[in-house]
Structures are given as C-alpha cells and as structure tokens.
C-alpha cells in the first residue's frame, strides 16, 4: 500500500481499513482523485463524523462545554469546534490567493488575511486547500508571492495540500475543488470562494443546494478581506447569522399607531396601541353598536325627565 496516499486520506479523516480496501481494488498506482471518488462511492465517512453518529460508549457533552475526548484528533482539528457556536470554515486557497494577487500572482498573503479575519471572529475550525505543486519553486508563468506563509499555515494544521504528481514530465493534478466542497459539506460549514463550482453542482444535487446556501464570497479592499454583510442577498440572513450555527433572530419592535387614540380601525389595526392593552379591543362595528346603545339609553332617560 502506498504510504503517502494512506497518510493523505488518514489526514482527511477516513479509516485505514476503507483506504486500504480501495487501494487494493484500484492498485498502488491509482490516482488520488480516483481513490477519493471510490471512497465517496462506498459511502465512507471521516471518523469524526462516524464517531458523532454512534451513540454507544461515547460520553455525551453539553453544547458549549470544553471537555473533549482525547485520541480523536485528525488533520490537526480542534475538538472544541463540535461544540462551537460558529460554523467551520473551508477556504479555497487558490481562489483567494489569485484574487488578492489581481489574477496575476498567487499571493499567499491574501490567504493569511482571510485566515486572520475568521480567527479574530472566533472560528476554531479553519482549513485552507491548496494544490501540492504550489510548494515548488515559482516559475515565470505562475509567480508566487510570500510562499513561506504556506509553510507556516501547514505547521499550524490549517493548510492542506491536495495531491499532485508528475508522470513522464507532465503534472497530474487532482481536482482540489472536490476536496473543498466535500469537506465543507461533511463538516456542515462555509465555503469561502468566489467560484460557483457549477460542475460540482451538476454532479451532485445535495452539493448543489449546499453550494447555493453556504458559499461566502468576498472582496479585497486595500489588503483588507471583506465578505458581504448580506451573503445570500438583501432578504437573506446577516453575515453573523450566516456564520453561526444558531442564528439570532432580531426582536420585532411594534410600531406605534400614527393616529393614536383617534384610530378608528379597532382590533383590526396592525399598529401598536398602548392605551388598548388593558381594555378589550372591539371591532369598529361593535364600537358603533356600543355607542348607539349609550345614546339610546341617554335619550330615554331625558324623555322620562321631560315627562315627569
């Protein structure tokens, strides 16, 4: 079994038995992308998700608790992310770096700016995916700026390289977009990219919904990472709610009636009437009937007085 492939998919959270089984079926020379497809086809899930799904022998921990079970760390994950109120973040490193480099330079500083932005907000699970060949010395046709940042982020277990290799002098690159969408989907997190992944949307209907609802676009303004305040449009959730597992609904404040006590709508009025809180709200017709009764009784009393 190819040890490098085994280590790679172990980092992504898959069990050794499933990986070894797929590698035996496909052979040691199988491409990493093919191995990933086979794991997806088998329905294999990362160990972290399987452990969450198994109720037996696992200690239940209340949400917000910091207690964790040791030995379940994979890919350098913080176990506190499962109880965190903020969603996991999966960053399309190539998209962010090229966007910061004005589509001319692979700017690693742009990735650092995005990571720092989410760190400052309190996100504990942040993963950046970048193709492995970006570790190579830069060439004229693919310039890279601040390449040392990639090494630093890899040491912090934030950056993950998607596999690539050379066959007869030609580079064979695995589809890193599939890694990004798959990990974000399984972690129920947020994809940070300006790419719409239309090919992956057509490939999987569940991914299509997920990409439409969980894609966070962004801009760089004077070396400042800026996502929109309304990620899903004017009528969608705010940025805070979009990034949170438990969105906070705004309190509905009742608008006072502009007519005040002169309002004639009765209980059909949609505005707030503080003077009507203690009294039963009558409809306009009931109010008129009540007034006519009062007038009739007053009129009868006057007639009696006049007769007497």
TrEMBL record:
Keyword Ribosomal protein: no
InterPro entries to which the protein is assigned, alphabetical: Rege-1_UBA-like, RNase_Zc3h12_NYN, ZC3H12/N4BP1_RNase_Reg, Znf_CCCH
Zinc finger (C3H1-type): 251-276
Domain of life: Eukaryota
Cofactor(s) listed: Mg(2+)
Family according to the record: Belongs to the ZC3H12 family.
Protein name: ZC12D ribonuclease
Organism whose genome encodes this protein: Cephalopterus ornatus (Amazonian umbrellabird)
Gene: Zc3h12d
């Amino acid at each position: 079994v190819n040890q490098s492939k085994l280590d790679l998919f172990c980092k992504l959270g898959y069990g050794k038995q499933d990986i070894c089984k797929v590698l035996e079926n496909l052979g040691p020379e199988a491409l990493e992308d093919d191995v990933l497809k086979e794991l997806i086809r088998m329905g294999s899930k990362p160990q972290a998700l399987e452990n969450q799904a198994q109720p037996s022998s696992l200690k239940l921990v209340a949400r917000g608790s910091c207690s964790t079970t040791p030995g379940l760390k994979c890919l350098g994950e913080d176990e506190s992310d499962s109880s965190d109120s903020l969603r996991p973040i999966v960053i399309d490193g190539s998209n962010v770096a090229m966007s910061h480099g004005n589509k001319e330079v692979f700017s690693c500083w742009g990735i650092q700016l995005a990571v720092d932005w989410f760190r400052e907000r309190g996100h504990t699970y942040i993963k950046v995916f970048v193709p492995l060949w970006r570790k190579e010395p830069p060439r004229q046709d693919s310039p890279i700026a601040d390449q040392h940042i990639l090494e630093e982020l890899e040491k912090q277990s934030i950056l993950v390289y998607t596999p690539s290799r050379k066959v007869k002098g030609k580079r064979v690159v695995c589809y890193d977009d599939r890694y990004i969408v798959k990990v974000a989907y399984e972690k129920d997190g947020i994809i940070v990219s300006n790419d719409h992944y239309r090919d992956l949307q057509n490939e999987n209907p569940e991914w299509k919904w997920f990409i439409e609802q969980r894609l966070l676009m962004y801009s760089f303004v004077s070396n400042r990472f800026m996502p929109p305040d309304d990620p899903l449009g004017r009528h969608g959730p705010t940025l805070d709610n979009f990034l949170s597992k438990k969105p906070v609904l705004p309190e509905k404040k009742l608008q006072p009636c502009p007519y005040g006590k002169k309002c004639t709508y009765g209980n059909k009025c949609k505005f707030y009437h503080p003077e009507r809180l203690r009294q039963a709200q009558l409809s306009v017709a009931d109010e008129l009937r009540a007034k006519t009764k009062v007038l009739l009784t007053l009129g009868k009393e006057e007639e009696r007085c006049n007769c007497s």
